[in-house]
Amino acid sequence: MKLIKRADWGAPATSGAGSIANTRGVKIHYMGSHYTSHAHSRCAGQVLAVRRSHMANTKENYADIAYNYVVCEHGYVFEGRGVNKRTGANGNAALNTAHYSVLALLGSSGMTEPTADMLNGIVDAVEHLRAHGNAGNEVLGHRDGHPTQCPGGPLYAWVSAGAQRPGVDQGDDKPSTPAPSTPADPYARGLPQVGKRSPSTVALQRELQRVGYMASSVKRDANYGPRTQDAVAAFHDANPQFKSAPGRRPQIGPLGWAFLRKMRKGAGSPAPSTPSTPTVNLSRLIAAARRDPGLPQGGTTHAADVRVVERALAAEGLLNSRWASDGSFGSMSVAAYAAWQRRCGYTGRDADGIPGAASLRKLGVKHGFRVG
Ligand SMILES: [Zn+2]
Ligand SMILES: [Zn+2]
Fold first, then answer.
1. Could you say which ligand is closest to the alpha carbon of residue 115?
2. What is the span of the domain harbouring residue 52?
3. Measured on CA atoms in the order 360, 140, 255, 190, is the torsion positive or negative?
4. Distance from the alpha carbon of residue 310 to the mean position of ligand 1, in angstroms
């Protein structure tokens, strides 16, 4: 982790914020204002400006910068309140007690797409909070549980897809040197680049074929040529949250790449086949979706129905496999189901993560269960 301690970005060495022993996890935030990409030499000044604006906010009466950590586009993790300090960023006292907070220096306009370095920095901060601050496993967005757009569409898509490391080597210009003795992970070799040759392009084509955006008859090769670009454009049309930048549709971005990698992991552990088609009861599922998020971690209401839906959401790449069979329709499952509803074209309150008949039937047709 590229940690920058408080004293090194201009804050007092220790935070005056109140203490906390543990949390259920971490919530992710963005700036929610215009933000432009800049050299790392200016990042400390940005963090300082955030702290100054919080200290000047007499309504909230902040004791310190509200966030536990702040991550810049270059992947550096600035120590905010730090570990075992209650955040002031999540919306109210109960929300601030339930989760820590990590701010991404990302805008609602200007620079709105997280870099791969930034995603890695966020995971660094989350892992640090787990290792040293007793943070639980949940990684959620500010908007989970609070009416806000934060942390913005692109970053929230990554959070709902499981907040995984993109596994992207940003040094795209360096030739990759695969070690012949080990079965190298093609995903670790960097982002495939339009018009360039790279072994990772073959992996990209394989995943695009698997999820149906490239005809399986196309012979895979290392060249990111027109057919790969067409397939990536189709993937982006269906999943616009993964477009890396306006006008660059055929270039796979770090978020889309992370999503496809997750799909691959999901495919590696298929659910055990069942002799008959399972049936999910809609009213039991709704009851679980309303009750489980308020229960202690892992609490269940209708575990059998929920498990079928969790497996389907995991197969869609919307729910981390860690939560895919616990039978608890907790806040991760609600967030994943909301992402499924958005994928079905619903918005606003129609995509609140509480299952409805139409979206559930659609999920069932795709993943082999009946709705009863
Ligand atoms: Zn926020
Ligand atoms: Zn920076």
1. 2
2. 2-160
3. negative
4. 27
